Structure formats: structure tokens, C-alpha cells
Amino acid sequence: MGLILLYLAVAGLPLLLSWASNTPPRSFSNEIASGLGLVAFAMILVQFVLSERFRTVSSGLGLDRTIRFHQLMARTALAFALLHPFAYHWLPGPDRPWDPTRQLTLTSDFPSLITGILAFVLLPAFLLAAINHDALGYKYERWRLLHGLGALLIVALLLHHALSAGRYSADPRMVWMWSIMAALAVFSLIAVYGLKPAYQRSHPWRVSAIARLAPHQWGLTITPDGHAGLAYKAGQFVWLNIGHSPFSLYENPFSISSGPSSGADMSFIIKELGDCTSHFDQVKVGDRSYIDGPHGTLTVDGRPEPGIALIAGGVGIAPLLGILRDLVQTGDPRQAVLIYANRTRDQIVFEDEIADLSGVEGTQVFHILQEPPEGWTGLTGVVDSALLDRVFSDDRLSSWVFVLCGPPRMMTSVEEVLMACAVSADRILSERFQYD
Ligand SMILES: Cc1cc2nc3c(=O)[nH]c(=O)nc-3n(C[C@H](O)[C@H](O)[C@H](O)COP(=O)(O)OP(=O)(O)OC[C@H]3O[C@@H](n4cnc5c(N)ncnc54)[C@H](O)[C@@H]3O)c2cc1C
């Protein structure tokens, strides 16, 4: 809530300063037009902070919510920016000497307007490219670089346009405000692409184990190299870079599948998907790696509920296994149930260890398969209301916390079932491995 209020305050700051600038009032439509432009620019500048995975932001909202908010605000800012020139009651002509406060006229000075026109054309193209980046066929890393550079270009154009054509932005206080906000946006890029990597370089890790766990799934363990490791909570994730310079863009988010109580090593379960994860057969023990983290809010530390329901689909087991391992290792008194859904039996990872964990008092495990092999005695089908009814009594549904991680369709349907069973939203924690 605090972050949302801060966001509104920052996005609304140019309106407040414009109002305080004591310039003579204009027609309503021109005030609206200026307001739209000012708010759109402020929102675009805040986008840098929203997209740069600062822990204060992503730990408050959760990374997937932060990214969704970033996407939603990008669309809103675009709508404001596109409406901005059309809302003006346009009186073309040169700046009149008798109207220095531009109460009655708008600037038609070409150099001031051209940067706004360029930004006006680039913004929708930029947003469309971001929405369709998968379909465009760019490697994720290349897309990320282009996205960052494109955003910087648009901000430079908008800054020039606001300072040279804007009525309110000409006010010295506004010039300061835009300069500080633009500097913070640029600093957020420097922090993520310069300062964080520099820190990572002084805190390297080494691959200490790598093994194929199941078809298309790898188990990876890294060990801190010359430092104490990372303070994290079970269920969180890091950006992991294996074998590349910390200053490169080659890093991917992976949930930690070990618990902090197991020591300084960190483990991951990684599913082959694209150009990075499909080359895990080339990762060797001793390879240098770097991490940025911890991030994420998928954690049950400090939760008051008496029981924890962990519902995993496929590789979504990674953070939930981290939580379960940690609960058992620390002798946590809360009860825990793990439901682990897969399509086929050979996709189950750490089957023996999970069987051992289910033997611990207060812990239950249910495997469910969509395509069970002959002789399978576990559950079959998908995680649906019948299964949840069977596993969770009314008492559990009304008092436990539910932690979900799996394919987007499964998460959406389980969330709907849980809500239908009167599980309140604050007792459902989830992490999506894909933003769109
Ligand atoms: C919070 C979180 C936790 C995750 N935990 C796990 C896990 O424990 N195990 C697991 O197997 N997978 C996990 N994933 C998914 C994993 O990050 C992607 O499968 C992996 O990045 C794909 O990379 P690739 O280069 O092989 O595939 P690509 O084909 O390059 O990418 C496929 C898709 O993965 C996403 N992606 C790729 N690179 C990045 C990046 N640097 N940052 C953000 N998204 C990216 C994009 O949506 C992209 O379109 C997690 C994702 C998130 C967001």
C-alpha cells in the first residue's frame, strides 16, 4: 500500500508543481492536455525503477506483480501520451511576445515539437515490440538490451520536449523535478547494469554439483567462492548467471530449491526451455557463476497460519521443495501438505527424498499424475476441487496458507477453486515463472 501511495505521489508530483506555479489559468482542454503529458512522462520515468528488480519494490509487491504493474502502467502512460497532443485546443503560430506565459497560445517551434513527435511515434512501436517480444524472435537478452536503450532514447526525447515546449515544465522547480527524476531513472540502469554486477564480481560462486534429475530437468548446486553466501528465505529466487561475465545480460531467474538451514550452498531445479536452459549439459563442476538476489515473496517465514499447503506443478516444485526442506530441517511445528502434480511419472524429481520428507510427522505428500503408468497407486488427473476437497478439510481450508507454483493454467484454476472454497486472497501465495 505504501508503495502504491508513493507511486501516485510521484506520478502526481508534476501536477502539484504545475498548480503551484501560479501561471494564469487556461482553457480546460489545454489544462487537461498538459496534465496528460506531464503525468505520462512521470509514469514513464518511474517505469525504470519498476522494471529494474529493486528488492524494496519487488519484495513488497512480489516480482510478478511488479512486472504486471509495470506492464499496466506502460499501457496507461501510452494512452495518456497519445491523448496529450489531441486534447489541446490548438492555435498554431509563432510564440507571441504579448503572451509570454503561453496562456492563449501553444508553441509551434519546430525543434521543440519534433522531439515530442518522435516520442509520440516511438512510444507505441516500443510498447508493441515489448508485448510481442517472444513473437519477434529476439533472444531474451537482446530484447532486454533493446528495451533498455529504447526506453532511454524515449526519455531523452521527452525530456527535451517537456523542457523546451512545455508551459509548466519551463518553471525552474519543474526543471529540477524532471532533471532529478530522469537522473534517478538513469541511475537505476547504472545500478542494475554496473553497480550490482561489480558487487557480484566480488562475490562469485562455483558450480559444485550438476545432474540430470529427469528428462529435461537438471539439478544444480552452487557454492560461495570466498564469501559467506547469501541470506535468503526458503521459496525465494535469484537471477543466476553461469559462466558469463557479471556485466553481461546472460542471467535468468530461478527459484532456490534448498532451504537456508541446509548451509551456504544453494540448489536449483531447472527445466530445459530455451537457449540458456537447453545448454545445461555443458555446465561443469567448477564453473564460475554469479547471482543477484534474493528476490521474491513466496515464503512462509513468519506466517501465523497453523498449516501450509504446497501445491506444485512440474518444475514449480523448486521453490516449494525449498520451503518443505526448510520446514523439516528446522523442525517447524506447522503442519505441511505437498501436492506435486506432473504429467508422467518420469517427470517427478527427488522422488525418494520427497518420500522421506512425507515420513516426517506433520508432513504429508500427494503425487498426482495426468498420465499414470500401469500399477500407479497415487492420485490421477489434475489438481481440481475434488482433489482439494479430499486433501483439505474445511478447517484446513479456513485456516491454512496455500502456496502455489506451476504452469500458468494450473495456477489460475487452483486459485479459482481456492477462492470458491472461501480461502481468502491473503492466504494464497503464488509465483509465476512467466510474466505474460
Ligand atoms: C520468479 C521466477 C522463478 C523461476 N524459477 C524457475 C525454476 O526454479 N526453475 C525453472 O526451470 N525455471 C524457472 N523460471 C523460469 C526460467 O527463468 C525460464 O525458464 C528461463 O529464464 C528460460 O531461459 P532460456 O534462455 O532457456 O529460454 P528463452 O527461450 O531465452 O526464454 C524463454 C522465456 O523465459 C523468460 N526469460 C528468459 N530469460 C529471462 C530473464 N533473464 N529474465 C526473466 N525472464 C526470462 C522469458 O519469458 C522468455 O520469453 C522462473 C522464472 C521466474 C520469473
Secondary structure: elements and pairs:
Layout: H1 2-20, H2 28-51, H3 55-61, H4 63-87, H5 110-131, H6 140-165, H7 172-201, E1 205-214, E2 217-224, E3 237-242, E4 252-255, E5 266-271, E6 288-295, E7 307-313, H8 317-329, E8 335-342, H9 351-358, E9 363-369, E10 379-380, H10 385-391, H11 394-399, E11 401-405, H12 408-420, E12 428-431
Parallel strand pairs: 7-8, 7-11, 8-9, 9-10, 11-12
Antiparallel strand pairs: 1-2, 1-6, 2-5, 3-4, 3-6
Helix pairs in contact: 1-2, 2-4, 2-6, 2-7, 3-4, 4-5, 5-6, 6-7
The structure holds flavin-adenine dinucleotide.
GO cellular component, one term: membrane
Protein name: Ferric reductase
Keywords: Membrane, Transmembrane, Transmembrane helix
Tell me about this structure.
By secondary structure, the chain is an alpha/beta fold. The chain has three domains: 2-93 and 106-200, Four Helix Bundle (Hemerythrin (Met), subunit A) (Up-down Bundle); 205-295, Elongation Factor Tu (Ef-tu), domain 3 (Beta Barrel); 307-431, 3-Layer(aba) Sandwich (Rossmann fold), CATH 3.40.50.80. It is built from twelve helices and twelve strands. The strands form two sheets. A six-stranded antiparallel sheet has the order 4-3-6-1-2-5. Strands 10-9-8-7-11-12 form a six-stranded parallel sheet, sandwiched between helices. Helix 2 runs antiparallel to helix 4 and helix 3 crosses helix 4. The chain is elongated, with a radius of gyration of 26 Å. It starts with a helix and ends in a 5-residue tail after the last strand. The mean pLDDT is 90. Bound molecules: flavin-adenine dinucleotide. Its main location: membrane. It is found in: Membrane.
